[in-house]
Amino acid sequence: MADSSMTTKTSKADASKLRSITITINGKEHTVWVEPRMLLSDVIRDEIGLTGTHVGCEHGICGACTIIVDGRPARSCLMFAVQADGMQILTVEGLAGEDGSLHPLQEAFWEKHGLQCGFCTPGMLMSAYHFLEEHPDPSREEIRDGISGNLCRCTGYQSIVDAVEEAARVMRQGKE
C-alpha cells in the first residue's frame, strides 16, 4: 500500500523539479513527491504526518530529530528526503506496539520521569533504542555516553539515565 501525494508547498510551475521517493516508515510504505532540497524531517512531519519527530536546532546538534534509518540513528534535519529513497525508517511512533502498548523504553521514561517538557524525548528515545540494541546490559556511564548526542534542557539527565537503565533491565528480562 503506497501513499501518493504531491507536496503542497510547491507551486505548479515548480512541479518539474519534484522527485518521487518511496520510503518505508514504521513498516508502512509511502511514495511522495518532493523537491530535491526538502529535508527528511520535513517529509516525515509535513508530508507523512508523523509529528513525533521534532525539529529543534536544524543543525544536527540537539538530536531532537533523531530517527533510525536502515538500522542506524540519523539526524533527519541533516538528511535530504531524496537520500532516503528506498530506505527503512523507524520513528518514535513506530516504537509502540500495534495494539498501542508502550515500548519498554517509553514505559520507563514515563515511570522514571525521564521527560519534562518532552521536546527532546522522541530523539532521546530513538537514540536510546539503538544504543540498547547494541548494549543490552550497559553501565550508567555507558548510558550517559550513549545518549550524549542528545540535548535536554529540562531534566538534568539523571531521570533519563534511570529510565534507560530500567528499560535495559526490562528488555533483558523479556529476552530470557
Fold and architecture overview:
With 176 residues, this protein is an alpha/beta fold. The chain has helices at 40-47, 104-111, 121-134, 140-146, 158-175; strands at 3-6, 19-25, 28-34, 66-69, 72-75, 88-90. The protein has a 6-stranded mixed sheet, sandwiched between helices. Strand 4 (66-69) and strand 5 (72-75) form a beta hairpin. Helix 2 (104-111) packs across helix 5 (158-175).
Provide the fold topology.
Layout: E1 3-6, E2 19-25, E3 28-34, H1 40-47, E4 66-69, E5 72-75, E6 88-90, H2 104-111, H3 121-134, H4 140-146, H5 158-175
Parallel strand pairs: 1-3, 2-6
Antiparallel strand pairs: 2-3, 4-5, 4-6
Query: How much of the sequence is in beta strands?
Result: 15-25%
What is the SS-derived class? Answer: alpha/beta
Distance between the termini: 36 Å
Mean pLDDT: 92
What's the short story on this structure?
The chain is of the alpha/beta class.
